[in-house]
Amino acid sequence: MTKRIVILGGGTGGTLAANRLRRALGAECEITVVDRDDDHVYQPGLLFVPFGLAHADDLVRSRRRQLHDGVAYRDSGVLHVDVEADQVHLDDGGVLAYDVLIIATGARLVPEETDGLTGPGWMSKVFSFYDLAGATALARALRDFDGGRLVVNVVDLPIKCPVAPLEFCFLADWYFQERGIRDHVRLTYVTPLDAAFTKPFAARALAGMLQEKGIELVTEFNTGEVDGEAGKLISYDEREVEFDLAVVVPVHGGAECVERSQGLGDALGFVSADEHTLQSKVRENIFVIGDAAAIPTSKAGSVTHFEGEVLTRNVARFLAGEELDASFDGHTNCFIESGFGKALLIDFNYGTEPLPGHYPSAVGLPLLKESRLNHLGKLMFAWLYWHSLLPGRDLPGVSAAMPLAGKRLEAR
Ligand SMILES: Cc1cc2nc3c(=O)[nH]c(=O)nc-3n(C[C@H](O)[C@H](O)[C@H](O)COP(=O)(O)OP(=O)(O)OC[C@H]3O[C@@H](n4cnc5c(N)ncnc54)[C@H](O)[C@@H]3O)c2cc1C
To answer: Which pLDDT band holds residue 201 (cuts at 50, 70, 90)?
Structure first.
């Protein structure tokens, strides 16, 4: 009998999983992707919009058109999942029964969670570049900004692409230099972490770059309130950071449909899964990919891409009654744009933090080091995203397992 695979979310993970599964399983499975609109946003491009380096329209393509022939697309919101009955209830009243369910509903921005963030000043002197509307409005505000204190603040973790706020700082430094007003701008990065980044080795390198570029670093700042009128961030322990313009990365939570599904999500609305097989801890026939997963990786498109290979294999094995492949190693790979046409690259997994060296082998892109080659890699990634990653193709020389070759292990 034809097996039914339902995929919730047609973003990065849902799309590449559907296309990989279609190729692996052919017509022996009926694959349906559900999402609530037809706008697939290339989210890494949002970083460039505020600086006029990308236009919002160039980042959006039809979701439906990214799916291979033979994959069905259902344009509706997901209301909730009945995990006992193996059914998905949709906003349009429809019900989809499944043999295997893949949760790919990503992470949701929840700015309302922080007192005052969406109050007075929101979208006039307090912005987020984490969605299209925010990134576009911020581009206008930056153009009009002639000097003062610009603060970039991460309210809490986890967030998507944890390096993106740092990249924003580096690009802001470049942008104001280009405009000849850098001396009139005080740039400050405010984070709840005790360092510039989660991983100690990379954190030292990134903190050094902030210092070189004259960007202040404020650590262990847990934002409790944003006072847009007075222009200040206030922490739970009553410290204050003043601003003329604030760029805030809001609290992230899991999808509301996960929260509404009894027994599916954790306290934040993410779905617990085995970190090596990606099978959910809720039910054997539910798998998770991308930002929706509560596993100890970064919430990044690269992780989602690497997960795709193991997830596809495991859905096929599950349907065949075979043992699952427990090989996902938490592989994460991020270009960090540093301004002036340069970028760094970091590559790590559950057990190995970002190290210097080269990727993917002794000959390749420099790791943890600014270079033009990495900047070109970051720009080329957009093309690879639409033409290779989403269609579910493997990238030449790039494997899901993190390579050790090329890394200077003695630097640990
Ligand atoms: C500013 C920014 C910069 C980034 N830069 C990078 C980078 O340089 N490199 C990198 O690797 N990653 C980067 N990322 C992260 C990357 O974009 C995400 O990790 C990736 O898109 C995760 O894929 P996903 O499928 O889990 O979620 P998404 O691609 O967000 O897809 C989730 C989908 O679920 C749908 N959905 C949710 N709830 C429902 C519902 N109730 N009903 C129907 N549909 C629903 C949504 O509409 C959405 O389409 C960046 C992200 C941001 C915001």
So the answer is: confident
